[in-house]
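nicotinamidase, pasting as requested.
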Amino acid sequence: MTRALFIIDVQNDFTEGGALAVEGGSAVAAGVSALLAAHPDAYDAVFASRDWHDPDSDNAGHFALSGEPDFTGTWPVHCVAGTPGAEYHPSLLLPDTTIHIRKGQGRPGYSIFDGVSEGGEKTGELLIANGVTDIDIVGLATDHCVRASGLDALEHGQHLRVLTDLVAGVAPQSSDAALAELAHAGAVLVTSDVVD
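C-alpha cells follow.
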C-alpha cells in the first residue's frame, strides 16, 4: 500500500480575509501542518493543489467580470496566478518533496485531477508513477474542490479517506451533502487521529 496526502487549495483567497474566504480555512492550514509535523513518514507522497487562474481573461466564464456571480458556476475574481491570493496560506508548511499541482489555468478547474504539476504531468499520471493506491484528502472547500477531487480519486480507483477535521466548506448544509456523497461513492470518513 502506498498512501498519498491530497491537500486541496489551502490558499490565501480561500481563507479568512480572502476573496472567497471559507470560515475555518486558516485552522485547516495550521491543522494540516501539525499533521505533517507529527507524522512525517505517514505519506509516501504529498500533493498540494492551487487554483491558478489566468490574469487576463474570465477563465472560460469562471470569473464573473460583468454582473453578479452566481457562486455555483461563476465566481468573483480569485486565485489569480502570481498574486498573494493564489499563494498557499502562510500557516501551511509543506515538505520539500511536495508535488505542486496548478489547476484552473484559463478555464474552470475544481478537481486536483484537472491540474498539472510544474513539469506538466497530470495528477493521474503522477499517482501511477508513484504507485499510489490510497489517498487521504484535506483542504478547501469541502463542498466544491475537496468534493470534486475526492470523487475523481475514487473514479481513478483509489482508496480514499476524508480527514473530516481538516476540511472546511462554504456552508454547513452543502458540506454535509458533499461528505455524504463522497461516503456513498466509497470514501471513508475519519478524523486525522487515524493517521500514524
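Note for the archive: The chain has a mean pLDDT of 93.
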